[in-house]
């Protein structure tokens, strides 16, 4: 097979799989549910921030990093850019999945070329691997489901391939290979943090081999490892520095808390270790699993005269697969799609087993008949795909339909000329929830966002006092708490809201859109209450609960954060007129914290330190935000100076010791461990005292 023929056939595999995907999207796309709409929102946000989608413009890197507080931005940047070309409807945005699928198909083919010798055989084997990837039911499902696992799988496969190229004892060790490996690893990590589950053991292997290498190029390899590490850090640190607190919190919620809520099996339990094994027949197909798996055994038994280059390449793939499988199982949160990054390696291994059966048949059957097993396997694979595709189509086409677009348009969404608004969503169903309301409301440059309230009975009062738009459900409410029913009843009976329109639901029941009556009492603006709340920070932890509980509700009622700009402008005006205006300084400091601008917040807390020399809390807050800005040396200096001024207050002692340890003073680790419990107890006691006063 000539190179151009190989490239044409490989492109045909990708185009054929894309055609199948587009047929699905054109007929059965439906509405995005919770996760899918969340990722679509992220792509929309990043496309706007790049200035390539209506309703946004380039405002700098800091604003761009604001949009990805929990999950890295690379996939959303690519997907948002694709939206600018294809359109922002769900089926149009899904063209980005075709792009990621193309990356995966070509990367798998490139990796497979190194797994067979000579080259004339390698091209056929590479096409077989790519065909298996295009046919795998799980990967087909990910191409028709707007989540991050397909870009994650593509970039993890790219990273492992490039790492293997650099690691290879015979053909590796080049500077270009090292740079490509580092950039590929950085790209995978910038798609999703879970790439670490597969890449950590692979990185350990290549770094260990570089350190233990005693050959003539060992020094060069170590320098390459060091430079590669530097490149990965340079790519990750700007985003990570800006969002490290929310990233840690989001990872804890997504991995540990979600596993507990969903009842996933324990990490060390037998069910946990069998979780993904049980899914493989459905995700790959029984025929391919049996034929390919038995062929791998046959290959192992018949291995003779295997090329050393080929043997080393397979060793890397199998080690990466085994270690990645173990680390993936160690994650407490289990989901069908989380095994996807390992699937290309599994499919390449099964392709090798199927290829071995082909060699066995070719040696024993006449030439015309030798094609029959391969054709049977191919048709069996297509049958598996068709069966899984049809079942998925039936499920999704029945579940994700509803009047979402009509509701959003009636509330003023999909209109770039309309004022930014927030629609409070009380139900939470796959076809109507806060995420897909935001997505549909901001398409085509719109400014309507959705936010969910009703998880607590305390939400009733602020909704009645301040909300402008509310959508309720008649019939099934979806995944909401009982308190949502109380909010629903309160909106209907209050007389504050007027029903605008009722929308039938395909599966029974209706949704109803409610708007605040213009004759009702005008709500108190949050910016009028904000300075008093901000000043409550002067009480230390006792004032924190009132501040952040009020802000949490306000951010639901005002999903566009419209209160911030006029509030900041007014505070700056007041400060210009009176530099010692305490209320303005507290306001600006708190706004800096909420906007994730630690340097701005630290500047205003420093001014409050001077203005309030007897109050230790401005120093404590300044130390915290300085630490959040990755300056532990400055945070320790602030806390140490405050200790001298205010005495050994537990919170200041803890901040001083912890910041010093993070700054490199490891000898203070025992002091930090000793000071942390008293600091936590002091904060908790203060919060409990305030709660008792409030009650």
Shape descriptor reads globular
End-to-end Cα distance, whole Å, is 80 Å
Number of domains: 3
Rg over alpha carbons: 29 Å
Structural class: mainly alpha
Uncertain spans: none
Q: How many H/I helices?
A: 30
Mean pLDDT: 89
Instruction: List the strand order in the largest sheet.
Output: 2-1-3-5-4
What does this structure look like?
- By secondary structure, the protein is mainly α.
- It has 3 domains: 3-30 and 94-396, no CATH class; 404-516, 3-Layer(aba) Sandwich (D-Maltodextrin-Binding Protein, domain 2), CATH 3.40.190; 526-694, Alpha Horseshoe (Serine Threonine Protein Phosphatase 5, Tetratricopeptide repeat).
- The protein is built from 30 helices and 5 strands.
- The protein has helices spanning 3-28, 34-49, 61-66, 74-86, 90-93, 95-113, 119-135, 137-143, 149-167, 175-189, 195-212, 218-262, 270-284, 286-302, 308-330, 343-364, 371-399, 404-410, 434-441, 460-466, 483-493, 526-535, 541-557, 564-577, 582-594, 598-611, 617-628, 632-646, 650-662, 669-694; strands at residues 421-425, 448-452, 469-474, 497-504, 510-516.
- The chain has a 5-stranded mixed beta sheet with strand order 2-1-3-5-4, sandwiched between helices.
- Strand 4 (497-504) and strand 5 form a beta hairpin.
- The chain is globular and about 90 Å long.
- It starts with a helix and ends with a helix.
- The model has no long low-confidence stretch (mean pLDDT 89).
Brief rundown of the structure:
The protein has helices spanning 3-28, 34-49, 61-66, 74-86, 90-93, 95-113, 119-135, 137-143, 149-167, 175-189, 195-212, 218-262, 270-284, 286-302, 308-330, 343-364, 371-399, 404-410, 434-441, 460-466, 483-493, 526-535, 541-557, 564-577, 582-594, 598-611, 617-628, 632-646, 650-662, 669-694; strands at residues 421-425, 448-452, 469-474, 497-504, 510-516. The chain has 695 residues and is mostly helical.
């Amino acid at each position: 097979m000539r190179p151009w023929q190989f490239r044409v056939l490989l492109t045909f595999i990708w185009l054929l799989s894309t055609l199948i995907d587009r047929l699905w999207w054109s007929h059965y796309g439906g509405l995005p549910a919770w996760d899918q709409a969340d990722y679509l929102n992220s792509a929309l946000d990043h496309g706007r921030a790049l200035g390539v989608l209506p309703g946004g413009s380039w405002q700098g890197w800091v604003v761009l990093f604001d949009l990805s507080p929990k999950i890295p931005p690379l996939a959303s940047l690519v997907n948002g850019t694709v939206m600018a070309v294809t359109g922002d409807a769900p089926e149009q945005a899904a063209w980005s999945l075709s792009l990621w699928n193309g990356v995966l198909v070509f990367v798998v083919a490139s990796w497979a070329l190194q797994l067979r010798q000579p080259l004339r055989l390698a091209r056929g084997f590479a096409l077989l691997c790519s065909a298996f990837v295009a046919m795998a039911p799980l990967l087909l499902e990910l191409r028709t489901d707007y989540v991050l696992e397909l870009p994650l799988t593509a970039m993890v496969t790219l990273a492992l391939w490039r790492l293997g190229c650099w690691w290879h004892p015979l053909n590796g060790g080049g500077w270009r290979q090292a740079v490509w490996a580092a950039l590929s690893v950085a790209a995978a990590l910038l798609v999703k943090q879970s790439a670490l589950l597969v890449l950590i053991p692979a990185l350990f292997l290549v770094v260990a081999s570089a350190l233990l290498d005693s050959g003539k190029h060992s020094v060069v390899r170590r320098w390459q490892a060091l430079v590669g590490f530097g490149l990965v850090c340079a790519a990750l640190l700007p985003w990570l520095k800006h969002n490290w607190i929310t990233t840690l919190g989001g990872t804890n919620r997504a991995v540990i808390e979600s596993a507990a809520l969903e009842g996933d099996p324990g990490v060390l339990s037998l069910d946990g270790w069998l979780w993904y094994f049980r899914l493989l027949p459905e995700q790959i197909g029984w025929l391919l699993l049996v034929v390919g798996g038995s062929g791998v055994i046959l290959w192992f038994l018949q291995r003779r005269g295997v090329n050393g280059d080929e043997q080393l390449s397979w060793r890397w793939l199998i080690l990466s697969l085994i270690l990645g499988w173990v680390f993936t199982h160690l994650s407490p949160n289990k989901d069908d799609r989380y095994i996807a990054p390992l699937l290309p390696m599994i499919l390449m291994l099964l392709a090798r087993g199927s290829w071995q059966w082909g060699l066995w048949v070719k040696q024993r059957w006449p030439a015309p008949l030798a094609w029959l097993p391969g054709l049977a396997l191919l048709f069996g694979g297509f049958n598996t795909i068709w069966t899984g595709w049809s079942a998925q189509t039936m499920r999704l086409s029945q579940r994700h339909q509803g009047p979402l677009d009509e509701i959003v348009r009636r509330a003023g969404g999909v209109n770039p000329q309309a004022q930014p608004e927030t629609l409070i969503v009380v139900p939470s169903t796959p076809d109507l929830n806060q995420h897909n309301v935001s997505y549909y409301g901001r398409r085509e440059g719109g400014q309507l966002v959705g936010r969910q309230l009703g998880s607590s009975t305390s939400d009733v009062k602020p909704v009645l006092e301040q909300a402008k738009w509310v959508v309720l459900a008649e019939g099934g409410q979806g995944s909401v708490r009982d308190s949502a029913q109380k909010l629903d009843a309160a909106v209907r009976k209050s007389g504050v809201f007027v029903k605008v329109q009722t929308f039938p639901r395909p599966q029974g029941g209706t949704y109803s859109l409610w708007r605040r009556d213009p004759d009702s009492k005008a709500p108190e603006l949050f910016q009028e209450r904000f300075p008093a709340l901000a000043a409550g920070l002067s009480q230390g932890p006792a004032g924190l609960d009132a501040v952040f509980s009020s802000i949490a509700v306000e951010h639901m009622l005002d999903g566009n954060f419209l209160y911030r700009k006029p509030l900041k402008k007014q505070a700056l005006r007041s400060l210009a007129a009176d530099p010692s205006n305490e209320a303005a300084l507290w306001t600006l400091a708190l706004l800096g914290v909420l906007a994730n601008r630690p340097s701005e917040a630290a500047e205003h807390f420093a001014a409050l330190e001077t203005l309030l020399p007897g109050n230790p809390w401005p120093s404590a807050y300044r130390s915290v935000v300085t630490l959040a800005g990755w300056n532990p040396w400055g945070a320790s200096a602030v806390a140490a100076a405050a200790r001298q001024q205010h005495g050994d207050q537990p919170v200041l002692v803890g901040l001083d010791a912890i910041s010093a340890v993070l700054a490199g003073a490891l000898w203070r680790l025992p002091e930090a461990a000793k000071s942390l419990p008293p600091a936590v107890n002091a904060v908790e006691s203060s919060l409990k005292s305030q709660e008792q006063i409030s009650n």
